[in-house]
Specification:
The chain is built from three helices and five strands. By secondary structure, the protein is of the alpha+beta class. A hairpin with a 2-residue loop joins strand 2 and strand 3.
Length: 74
């Protein structure tokens, strides 16, 4: 997992892992969720990948756009 930069210093995202058609997001509480093209949609997953790499906005995007649309909890 890649540490999330958390540039705004207010995110509960701890780390992430990018795959071709998915992203796994781990939160500070230790819970991790896999969002893939089938569960969250390809456009949303690609946006999540971009935000993760930037280190800002990922938690807000998850809350506002994909919330419970994860494929499974790790």
């Amino acid at each position: 997992m890649e540490p999330y930069k958390n540039l705004n210093e207010n995110s509960s995202v701890h780390s992430y892992e990018i795959e071709e058609d998915s992203i796994t997001v781990q939160f500070n509480d230790g819970d991790a969720y896999v969002y893939n093209y089938g569960s969250a949609g390809s456009d949303n997953v690609e946006q999540m990948k971009t935000l993760a790499a930037l280190g800002t906005g990922l938690h807000s995007f998850i809350n506002n756009k994909v919330r419970n649309r994860y494929a499974y909890k790790v």
